[in-house]
Amino acid sequence: MKKSMIALSISISMFLIACGNETNNPASTATNSNTMATMTADTAIEKTYDVKILDNKKDPTCGMPVTAGVSDTAHYKNKVIGFCATECKAEFLKNPEANIAAAELIK
Ligand SMILES: [Zn+2]
Q1: Per-residue pLDDT tens for 49-79?
Q2: 79, 55 in Cβ contact below 8 A?
Q3: How many CB atoms lie within 10 A of CB 58?
Q4: Are 41 and 25 in a shared domain?
Q5: Predicted confidence band at 30 (pLDDT cuts at 50, 70, 90)?
Q6: Based on the domain organization, do 9 and 49 belong to the same domain?
Q7: Model confidence at 100, in pLDDT bands (50, 70, 90)?
Q8: Ligand 1 centroid to 99 CA: how many Å?
Q9: Domains held by the chain: number
Q10: Ligand 1 centroid vs 4 CA: distance in angstroms?
Q11: How far apart, in whole angstroms, are the C-alpha atoms of residue 27 and residue 13?
Q12: Which backbone phi and psi does 57 adopt, to 5 degrees?
């Protein structure tokens, strides 16, 4: 009985330590609230994306080629759309249906 209580308190304190680390992580505060931004694994480092993971040739909002640099992405109909800026993504998501053609999808 006593042993299990000790084990329990240890696991609780470990849980609390884990939580403390989580809130101290600057990357967790920078997480985009938009669930369509799924590149969470990359949030700890500077947000840059490999063009190879993208399904579009151009930022559909401003027409800039994705090879010039992508700072945010969105998922749309199983496609990964890259954007030069979060603002461009937000603009696209207001009406993706009307803007998707401008993205010049590869696949
Ligand atoms: Zn743009």
Answers
A1: 889 999 999 999 999 999 999 999 999 999 9
A2: yes
A3: 20
A4: no
A5: very low
A6: no
A7: very high
A8: 12
A9: 2
A10: 57
A11: 23
A12: -90, -30
Shared domain for 66 and 14, answered yes or no, is no
How many angstroms does the Cα of residue 35 sit away from the middle of ligand 1?
Answer: 20
- What's at 50, amino acid-wise? D
Strand pairing class (72-76; 79-83): antiparallel
Q: For residue 88, how far is its CA from the centre of ligand 1 (angstroms)? A: 5
> How many residues are present in the chain?
107
For the ranges 15-29, 63-77, 93-107, the lowest mean pLDDT is seen at: 15-29
Residue 6's domain spans which residues? 1-30
* Judgement on whether residues 25 and 38 belong to the same structural domain of the protein: no
- Do both 46 and 13 map to the same domain? no
